[in-house]
From TrEMBL:
Transmembrane segments annotated in the record for this chain: 21-37
Compartment(s): Mitochondrion inner membrane
InterPro entries: COX5C
Role description: This protein is one of the nuclear-coded polypeptide chains of cytochrome c oxidase, the terminal oxidase in mitochondrial electron transport.
Protein name: Cytochrome c oxidase subunit 5C
Record keyword Mitochondrion present: yes
Amino acid sequence: MANVPKIGKAVYKGPSVVKEIIYGITLGLAVGGLWKMHHWNNQRRTKEFYDLLEKGEISVVVEDE
């Protein structure tokens, strides 16, 4: 029994602060980018709507028959 190899145990060291910060920044940038794309899309649609309204191609008033 003198030459029996020891089996190492996995030791939980706790959260890595640097990894947590990097994960947080990455996730924040990704979600922020998606939010900006959503915002730009809404702005474009609103601008197109008012441009068409100004040209008279569309109307918000219901026409009587």
